[in-house]
Each structure stands twice: as C-alpha cells, then as structure tokens.
Here is the input.
Amino acid sequence: MSFTELVTVPAGINPNVSSAKQATMLALLGNPRQSYDQECREVTDIRLASMIVFRSVGRLKVRGLGPAVDSLERVLAAIEREEPAIHAVLGHVGMLCARNVRGSNTSISNHSWGTAIDVTLEGILDRRGDDRVQVGLTRIAPIFNDHGWFWGAGFRTEDAMHFECGDELVRQWHRDGLLAGLAPDSAPDPVLSLGDRGPEVLELQRKLNETGAGLVEDGIFGRGTHAAVMAFQARNGLSADGVVGPMTREALGL
Here is the structure.
C-alpha cells in the first residue's frame, strides 16, 4: 500500500487537543506583523523574530518558533521509532509563513508564528478540502496529537497536510517559562474570538443557529459569527464584545 492512498477522515481525531485560539496566540506570542494577506511574508515583531530558529530536525530542515521546532523534533523522533517507513518518506513545504488562512481576511494562519507545518508523503501534498486524506497521515496524526499538535483534518474544510501546535501546548510553554520576555505573567482565559476556526467554532455556530442566527456552519469565526455573538450577548444582558468567554459559553450551553 502507498502511504499516499486516500481514505476517509477517521473518527475521533484530535482527542484532548484543540486548535490554538487567535486570542491565545496574540496574547502569549504577540502579533507577528501589522498586516496580512494571502502572501507569505516575514515576521516584523522584533521579539517574536528573535525566537525564530532554522535547523535540521531529523531528516527535515525547518524554520519556525524555537519551542515549536523543539516539539517537532520530538514528534519526528517518535515517528521514526513507531513508523520508520513513513518517516523515510516524510517531507514538508513550510513552517513559518506570515499570512492569513487561505480564503480568509480575518483569520491569521498559525504559520505566522512558526508553530505549524504542512507535511508531504512521498513528495506529495494531501489535497485540501476533499474530505479524503493520505493513509500515512492517519498513522502519524496520533503521534502528533500525543505531543499536543492539532491535525488539520479536523477543520470544517479538511486540511490534512496541516499540523499545528495546539492551544494547550502553547499555554504549557507559557507555564514552563519558555515564552519569557515575550508573554505576560498570566495567560488569558481560553476564549473564542474573531479569526478562530475549528470544531469549537462549528459547535458555536450550531448553538447560535438554534437561537435563529442563520449562520453558514463553516467552522470559521468570521464577521458574521462575530455579529451573531454580539447580538446574542446583547439579548441576554451580557457584555456585547463578540468574544465567547465563560459567561457567553454558559448562556449558549457550550
């Protein structure tokens, strides 16, 4: 069997791992640059740029955030132990790339912080958005998950080539002091806000639609979802800031 043979997305992926929230990334790592579009651009934030490293990890050469590269090195070592044949054909098409998520003008890609990687198998990149994934990716995704990385096959628009450091892992770096000089002393509460995407946003949209919001359930926290959150908050006596924190979650039954 070729590792690039296509199969359906497995059930139960990303257990106990969530995609990194925009609010978490901005609060703990800063804003990589002041403007974004669909083009890969350089990080302009001096403090963040000082934490970007370029080095070989296993058989890959990568450029990314220091703690993310360290974690990736451990992931690749585990893949080499557990899936040596896949490790031998593993490649990538980039880690650091300051841009928006493809097709969005509100969501900053986690590549912008150098905390995500798009991988190839046998030199082939999995096609995005067809809800089919390379079988080799299904075998290494649990290893990424075990190290706190979120697999992009879990996005509403399937993105199986993509792995990113999860929200929990970024917060662990903060607790471990790996973001000293870059992050505040305390981490913000986990929230959903403009620019987020993933299963949690999809569930938020479903709950809002139960209240009559009429949203397209695409798993992307865009301006329509932001407006619907603000309208819901206003109707329920909450601060209409468009941010889904503990009080709004409780009111929506999330």
In short: The mean pLDDT is 94. The longest helix spans residues 66-82. The chain has nine helices and nine strands. Strands lie at 6-8, 52-57, 60-65, 90-92, 116-121, 124-125, 132-134, 149-151, 162-165.
